[in-house]
Amino acid sequence: MKKFITMVQNGQHLLFDEMREASKLMFHEATPLNEIESFLIALAKKGETAHEVAALATVMKSFALEVPVKAARYMDNCGTGGDGVNSFNISTTTAFVMAGAGVKIAKHGNRKISSSSGSSDVLEALGIHTDLTIDETVELLNEHGIAFLYAPNIHPKLKRIGQVRRQIGKPTIFNLVGPLTNPITLDTQFTGINRPEFTMEYAAVMKMLGRERGIVVSGAGGMDEASLAGQNEFVLVDQQDLIPFSLTPEDIGLKSAPLEAIRGGNADENAVIIRALLNGKRGAYFDTVVFNAAIGLFAYGKVDRIKDGVKLAIDTILSGKALGKLEAVVAFSEAREKQGVME
User: In the Cβ-directed half-sphere of 192, how many Cα atoms lie within 13 Å?
Assistant: First the structure.
């Protein structure tokens, strides 16, 4: 490991095979935690490359537990996190909206690493247990078209690295890799990063990993979601093509709003925001989810234009379909919890 630490500290980008070897060492129980920490900090300081991200994603997915789902067109809209904006859980809320519109969502997520409330934290606050077995997760996905894959359950080898990430307390390459390591084969993906200069490289990684279609966004104000605060930078992955484009909320009929308007809190506070929004409460929270859902619906192929996605997302919320998906997942989760207690 020390060889790779030195190379990266000297500003050297690792080739795909070199990064694959270093990644396997990171997951090896015998590798000292302080060496993993030094390597991750050095990578972040140097700046990660597409080949480094793709190599780590490949190794991490190879160690993941199998999730045997039926063949279908699945989508993940997990973002990289670590943007420091302290917004509410936008992608988690967006997942319920897209599922309500008929998209099959297999969303990868984790607890908070560098935010106030991670995806799994807010799901638990909403009444959704994150300790479902793999069989139960597959059943949920088959029954309701949406499931949440809690990363530590799927990636058992991440436990030691999780300790290191918490020690570092800042975004690392694992933030970038997280959305790319879903154990379910994804045809399409919508993910956000808070590095506008890296959107093209990240889209290239998605293409390397076999996504037929997808969108990467780096939001206004440094967000890893599409933001109402100004111009957002995107790259569309369409088969072999990588197509950059920009959008403001006004371009698709939404009002702009500052980042302060979508601040979140702890998991319980964010759960209240999510329930109000899915019950139709309009405002910046609502519009932010509509914006992101519209892009996800376009990436999935549900609509031909993002503006059409806005209409579909609004209709899905106001009709109660998005809230219905939330309630269905809560009910499924509670039933499995009761069954487990009785057994």
Answer: 29
